[in-house]
Amino acid sequence: MSAKECGHHGKGRNKFRRRLLYGILFFILIVLITILLIWAILRPSKPRFILQDTTVYGFNASVPNFLTSSFQVTVSSRNPNDRIGIYYDRLDLYATYRNQQITPRTSLPPTYQGHKDVNVWSPFINGNMIPISPDFSTSLSSEQASGSVFSYH
């Protein structure tokens, strides 16, 4: 004798799968609503960085295609958020001239910035015998000769 299928045996398994799918979708919906509410309440904004001052202590091009420079910069950061503080784990500064990096990175110490707070840093940025491209060296020499760029010795 052969067994006949009555059609009721697979419904329990399909019902479980459907409930599991609804449960997962409900959980994802709750997580998305929570994220949306947190964003709507806190309204996080990016901090604003401003280069306030730069003092050039040295800016010398030497042969063959090396640049030595020394700067002190004053940089401020403003946190515009009303309810959120920002922890800066790592901040690096470096100087560029005509889109070429002319100093190695200078790290600022890790710091916390409270809400609506302003932090100010005044690090020294130094580059000693930084290799530069020959075209860069030529344009720098012509700018120094014309008085566009000052050279400190």
UniProtKB/TrEMBL annotation:
Listed GO biological process terms: defense response to other organism
Broad class of the protein's primary localization: membrane
Matching Pfam families: LEA_2
Annotated transmembrane regions: 20-42
InterPro entries per the UniProt record, alphabetical: LEA_2, NDR1-like
Membrane-topology descriptor: Single-pass membrane protein
GO CC annotation: plasma membrane; plasmodesma
The keyword Acyltransferase is assigned to this record: no
Location of the Late embryogenesis abundant protein LEA-2 subgroup domain: 74-119
Keywords: Membrane, Transmembrane, Transmembrane helix
Places the protein is found: Membrane
PANTHER family, alphabetized: LATE EMBRYOGENESIS ABUNDANT (LEA) HYDROXYPROLINE-RICH GLYCOPROTEIN FAMILY (PTHR31415:SF51), OS05G0367900 PROTEIN (PTHR31415)
Protein name in UniProt: Late embryogenesis abundant protein LEA-2 subgroup domain-containing protein
